[in-house]
Amino acid sequence: NLVDVVHFDRCRIYLADIDTGRFSARIVRGFSLRPAEEASVDTSVGDGVVEIVAREQTPILVENASTAPEHLRSYGESLDMESYYAQPMTVRGRCIGVLVVSNTGPHRPITPDSIELLSTFVHQAGIAIENARFYASQERRYAELTTLYEVSRTLAATSGVQTAAATVNDLATKITDSDAGLLLLFDGEEEDCLSA
Q1: What's CA 195's distance to the chain center, in Å?
Q2: What's the rounded Cα separation, in Å, for the pair 71 and 9?
Q3: Are 44 and 70 in contact (CB under 8 A)?
Q4: If 0-12 CB within 10 Å is exposed, 13-18 middle and 19+ buried, where does residue 53 land?
Q5: What does the alpha-carbon distance between residue 16 and residue 28 come to, in Å, rounded to a whole number?
């Protein structure tokens, strides 16, 4: 466990959604996850800690939140942190996540040694997350190609327009995991649609 190895009491990992690029807290340890905090964070605008770290791909160390600039202080106060460290998780020049760690006691400062050790683990974690995402996307792609192959094979064995249309409708319903489907065929002579 990353938090145990580098000796931090609390950890939050914000991960970027592959499609939208928005960050949301996915892994939380030592913090309570409030419904308001579950909202994703848009890194294209704003001056919050996660936004800044993700956008600039630069870590932020706040040693005393009460004397920090407003945007750093408000983030620390919202999570009851006196001091904290936020670091981007970058893979191939792209930020895929932001890790935020802190200690609960005032007599446990964040040291350069703990930051150095954490940085090593963050880099490795970023690569592992990216590899897991790549593997999942390959599995999805394989499932899509398998489905397309099955559709092609089934349609090739079908004869007649009505039978082919019914087969397409059945397969579309299955592919989309729908309860029902309706396929309309355009009749050029009658200029009308017929249900298959």
Answers
A1: 41
A2: 23
A3: no
A4: buried
A5: 15
pTM of the model as a whole = 0.68
Q: Token digits for 40?
A: 């994703």
Three-point CA angle 128, 134, 140, nearest 5°:
140
Comparing CA positions, the residue from 45, 46, 43 lying closest to residue 54 is 43
Tokens of 196: 């298959």
Hey, is 13 helix, strand or coil?
A: strand
Residue 109 carries which DSSP code? Answer: P
> How many CA within 13 A on the CB side of residue 150?
12
What does each of the 196 residues of the chain score in pLDDT, given as a tens digit?
565 666 788 888 899 888 888 888 887 888 765 545 445 454 444 468 998 999 999 999 998 888 899 888 888 888 888 889 999 999 999 999 999 999 877 667 888 888 888 888 888 888 888 888 889 888 888 888 888 888 788 778 877 777 888 888 888 888 778 888 887 777 666 665 556 5
What does the radius of gyration of the chain's CA atoms come to, in whole angstroms? Answer: 25
**DSSP H helical segments within the chain, as ranges?**
2-6, 49-56, 70-78, 112-156, 161-175
CB atoms within 10 A of CB 108: 15
